[in-house]
Amino acid sequence: MNSEHSIGIALSGGGVRGIAHLGVLKALEEIGIKPGRVSGTSAGAIVGALYCQGLSPDEIFDIIQRTKYFKFLRPAISWTGILKMDILEELFKLYLPENTFESLKIPLTITATELSRGKVVYFSRGELIKPLMASCCIPGMFDPILIEGKYYIDGGALNNLPVEPLEGRCVDLIGVNCNHLQEVHTVGNMKALIERTVIMAMNYNVYSRKNKCDFFIEPQGLARYGVFDIKKAKDIFVAGYESAQRFISYNDGLAKLGSQSK
Length: 262
Prior knowledge:
The protein has 262 residues and is an alpha/beta fold. It has 8 helices and 11 strands. Helix 1 runs antiparallel to helix 3 (57-66) and helix 1 packs parallel to helix 7. One of its GO terms (biological process) is lipid catabolic process. It comes from Echinicola pacifica. The active site is at residues 42, 154.
């Protein structure tokens, strides 16, 4: 086992809630934990790509705050989505100019769902940006992404915590989920019902993989933030950071892992 690959981190999808991953990564770095491998779905794939490129959690958060994402989207004349993601390539190329997995400083695996077969596909070689766009292609919101003749959508549809690419390659595996649902006694309207149901389905496939993780970090109550609730970016970042700090304080094994990595 290569020691530089001893720690693996799997990052879930969750739209803007994925900003919490940056807070978690920052807290882990502060105790000396830097992953040898990363895997991610959707928002977790975006965070993973920028982090594996060599940007710090604070630098990535600054990019998110400065970027006006909606100017990189345009209407889709299609029955399969209301927005196209094509122009996002321009944005990603600003920060991933070499556009290959091989150019990253940390090995990364990105998860997407292949529509024709209804199967999870893991990308870890060759072109980076197209798989990255596919991984965060929310069904119904965005047109599916075409890669080598096949259409792909959001990886979270089937695997929202991609631990599988890290198994057998990492001694210690950390999973991070950014979609924790708080208990509620009533659901106020149809929109809230649909959103809660979607998150429940996403979390089902996350929790089915929870036992594969040596450490599972889940900032509490993030599901109250909408997928595109970018105005709450700072709150979400802080929630991830503070939650990870608390988790570390209650888990001697993780703190010990950090000290061994320094």
